[in-house]
Each structure stands twice: as C-alpha cells, then as structure tokens.
C-alpha cells in the first residue's frame, strides 16, 4: 500500500533525536490511553475504529440519499459550522475542479457565518433553482446553522410547498437529543445519525462528512478505505506515523516553538488546513496551553507572510503538505522573443517550478530558524485524504495526551455564545 509519509529531518537541527524519543515514549503512553479507553474524555473515542466499523449498507444508504438529492435538485445547500462543515468542505475543495463553481456546482455552504449579505445573496442565487438542504448539527442547537436553516426552509416551502420541501431536506444530528432531532422527527425528514461517542471535529467519516461529499459526486468508499487502511497500518506498528508527528511537534513546543503553520503549495488543500486548525485548536488549546495552529497557502502567501516567517519572531515551525503527483500536466511554453526571460523554464513542468519553490522555501525557512516537517501525500485523491484525516486524528489524540489536556472537549467555545445570547436577549441569559 502506498501511503502518506512523514519527513522530520529538517527538524533535527532544532531538536535532537534524543528529545524526540523522550516524547515518543510519552506518545506510546498516550496511545495506550486511547486504545484502552483510560485517557481523559474517553467517552468520545468512537472515531478510533470508525473507519472499520462503517458498513457497506450504511454507505449504500448515504449514496442512495445523495443520488436522490442529485437527481431531484440543481443544488444542495449544506448547512453547518465547525466540525459539521469543515471535513466535507475540505474533501470537496480538494477533489473538485478549481472552476467548478462557474460551471454549475452541486453543493454550496451556509450556516458557517451569520453574515446578512451572505445569506441574502444565497437566497437570491437559489430563487430560480430547484434546491435541497442538508442540515448538519450534532447538538442541534448551534445558532449559526439554525438561523440559516430557518431562512432556507422558509424559502424552500415558499418555492416548492410543504410536501416537496420535506423530501428535499435531510438532517444529520443526534439520535435522540436536540432541537434539530425534534424538528426532523416532527416534519418526517430523512435523517442520519452522528454517533454520541464521536465529537464534531472528529466526525468527517460519519454521515456529517460523507453525505455532502457524496452529494458533490466524490467517492466516499475510497475516503473510508483510506482511513481504514491507515488504522490497520497504525495497528501493525504502534501508530508510527501519528505518534512520531505528535512527538516531534511536542518536542518543538517544549523548546518554545509554540506556533505550527500548516503550509500547502496547492490551493485545493486550503480547507484541509482549516479542518486541521479546528481539530488541533479545539483539542489542544486549553488550560492556557497548546500549540497555536495557523496556515498559509504558498506560493501565494510567500508574497505576504513569507517575510514574517523568514525573519519574524522565532517561535514558529512549519508542516508542509506536499503532494507528490499532480492530476494534470502542463509545460512552460517557449517564446521566440523571450522578453520575460522565462525561456530557461521552457519545456519544464509547472509542477517542477512549484516543487522547486517548495524545496527552496523549505531550505530558506530552515536556514532562517524555522523547523520544518513534511507530510507527503502521494496524490490528491479521496483515498489519500482518508489516510491523511486518520493520521491527523490519531496524532491529535496522542498529542493532547502528551500535553495532558482533555483532547475531546471544548469548554472555551461557550464564552462568546453566552455573551451573544445575553446581548440578543435570549430568555434565561441575564445581564
Ligand atoms: O454540530 P454542532 O453541534 O452544530 O456544532 C458545531 C461546532 O460548534 C461548536 O461551537 C463547537 O465548538 C464545535 O466543536 C462544533 O463542531
């Protein structure tokens, strides 16, 4: 099996193998805590064996629902935020053509902000379209998706009537609890369940990620297979890949490298980094501890953030998502006049230019004092994305264990919500 690989050789000038292997021992302990369910937050370990537990029948049901929505609609609005949004968005952006949005896209997103202009413009866009809604909320009570869903449901009923709109709405939520569950049961929407023991940011391989990805026309079986293969591979070797990444980043953290920048050289990976930021930020950022997860898109951001990374405060390290093989091939053309002085590149692949930018940047940043990890992805396919997700999820569980926090809760997210509810006059929220 070809697979995602890790290269931390460009970290070694900053932390030695000895320091890393000390963290590697802690990583093994943390892994044990996950495997035998004795870690903090152990009620949320359902993701560990999720890829192997998903049955072909469940995938059939998801694919059938996606096929029905694809046939009955021009576009489906995926309504959700945080873990109920980012996994699907990451896969769809990675797999879709860069200009699909201009040639008739199958999915659009809402409920991940409360921008009045965004929602107005979405409603205008949907006015002359046959649309469906896939509303996703584990708790079923999150304000942003609830507001968007209320608007869109009203619009759908107005355009299609009550009966048709019930067919066009699918809800993904808790099996029993929450306002969305109550509404879905009352209206008779088709529903899918988010298991109790899988937290939002770990839910990409549940219907939360799989249904939107299937609606967008991508291969969810390959995605699940990639994750399952990574799980099997990890079981055979003590989760080598994830444990090493967790150990290396913690060794760096303890030496004062408190910010990790995930870097891509392919804009399709932008939302993979956004997904990663939620996974690591919500999991580790607590008790006034944790690596701050950031991200950049190169080479674009080399022309904005590159200066800071090269010469700013030395508390950064980078993790580059490096894709080995492109989907397409394109050569730099030769020009008879060569006024732009680019003929030295004529006949070379665009990807070679990109790869040399990647290598040149890595060397420059390491020289400038920025440790560099490389995560190598053989190709941008659903299969390797599945591997990558599982690699990161397991590493996050291990890393949180090394740090000593409860990786699976997010108490800090409530503070802004309470203030917002109080300011908006929600009953039960005093001054
Ligand atoms: O799926 P939901 O219950 O609507 O939650 C959506 C998101 O919002 C919350 O505030 C949490 O911080 C996230 O972990 C979660 O993924």
From TrEMBL:
Annotated pathway: Carbohydrate biosynthesis; gluconeogenesis; Carbohydrate degradation; glycolysis; D-glyceraldehyde 3-phosphate and glycerone phosphate from D-glucose: step 2/4
Reaction(s) the record says it catalyses: alpha-D-glucose 6-phosphate = beta-D-fructose 6-phosphate
A Pfam family the protein falls into: PGI
Active-site annotation: 282, 417
Keywords: Cytoplasm, Gluconeogenesis, Glycolysis, Isomerase
UniProt-listed Enzyme Commission number(s): 5.3.1.9
Subcellular location: Cytoplasm
Gene3D superfamilies the UniProt entry points to: Glucose-6-phosphate isomerase like protein, domain 1
A GO molecular function held by the record: glucose-6-phosphate isomerase activity
Matching CDD domains: SIS_PGI_1 (cd05015), SIS_PGI_2 (cd05016)
Domain of life per record: Bacteria
Tagged with keyword Isomerase: yes
PANTHER family per the UniProt record, alphabetical: GLUCOSE-6-PHOSPHATE ISOMERASE
NCBIfam families tied to this protein: PRK14097.1 (NF010697)
Function: Catalyzes the reversible isomerization of glucose-6-phosphate to fructose-6-phosphate.
Family designation: Belongs to the GPI family.
Protein name per UniProt: Glucose-6-phosphate isomerase
Native organism: Butyricimonas hominis
């Amino acid at each position: 099996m070809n697979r995602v690989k890790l290269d931390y050789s460009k970290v070694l000038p900053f932390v030695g193998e000895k320091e890393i292997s000390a963290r590697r021992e802690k990583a093994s302990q943390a892994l044990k805590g996950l495997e035998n369910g004795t870690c903090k937050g152990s009620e949320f370990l359902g993701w560990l064996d999720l890829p192997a537990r998903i049955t072909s029948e469940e995938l059939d049901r998801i694919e059938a629902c996606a096929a029905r929505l694809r046939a009955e609609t021009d576009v489906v609005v995926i309504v959700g935020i945080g873990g109920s949004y980012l996994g699907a968005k990451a896969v769809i952006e990675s797999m879709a053509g860069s200009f699909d949005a201009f040639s008739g896209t199958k999915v659009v997103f809402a409920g991940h902000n409360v921008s009045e202009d965004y929602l107005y413009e979405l409603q205008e866009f949907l006015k002359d379209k046959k649309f469906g809604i896939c509303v996703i909320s584990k708790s079923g009570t999150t304000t942003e998706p609830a507001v968007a869903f209320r608007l869109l449901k009203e619009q759908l009923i107005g355009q299609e009537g009550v009966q048709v709109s019930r067919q066009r709405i699918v809800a993904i939520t808790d099996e029993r609890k929450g306002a969305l569950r109550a509404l879905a049961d009352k209206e008779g929407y088709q529903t899918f369940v988010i298991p109790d023991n899988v937290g939002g940011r770990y839910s990409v391989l549940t219907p939360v990620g799989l249904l939107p990805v299937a609606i967008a026309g991508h291969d969810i079986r390959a995605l699940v297979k990639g994750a399952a293969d990574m799980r099997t591979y990890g079981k055979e070797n003590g989760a080598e890949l994830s444990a090493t990444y967790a150990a290396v980043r913690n060794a760096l953290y303890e030496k004062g490298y408190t910010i990790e920048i995930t870097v891509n050289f392919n804009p399709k990976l932008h939302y993979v980094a956004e997904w990663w930021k939620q996974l690591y930020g919500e999991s580790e950022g607590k008790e006034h501890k944790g690596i701050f997860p950031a991200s950049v898109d190169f080479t674009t951001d080399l022309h904005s953030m590159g200066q800071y990374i090269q010469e700013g405060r030395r508390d950064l390290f980078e993790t580059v998502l490096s894709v080995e093989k492109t989907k397409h091939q394109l050569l730099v053309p030769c020009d008879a006049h060569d006024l732009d002085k680019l003929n030295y590149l004529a006949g070379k692949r665009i990807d070679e230019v990109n790869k040399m930018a990647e290598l040149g940047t890595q060397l420059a940043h390491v020289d400038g004092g920025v440790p560099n990890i490389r995560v190598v992805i053989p190709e941008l396919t659903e299969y390797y994305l599945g591997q990558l997700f599982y690699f990161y999820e397991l590493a996050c569980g291990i890393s949180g264990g090394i740090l000593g926090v409860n990786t699976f809760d997010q108490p800090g997210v409530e503070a802004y919500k309470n203030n917002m509810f109080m300011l908006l006059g929600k009953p039960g929220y005093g001054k």
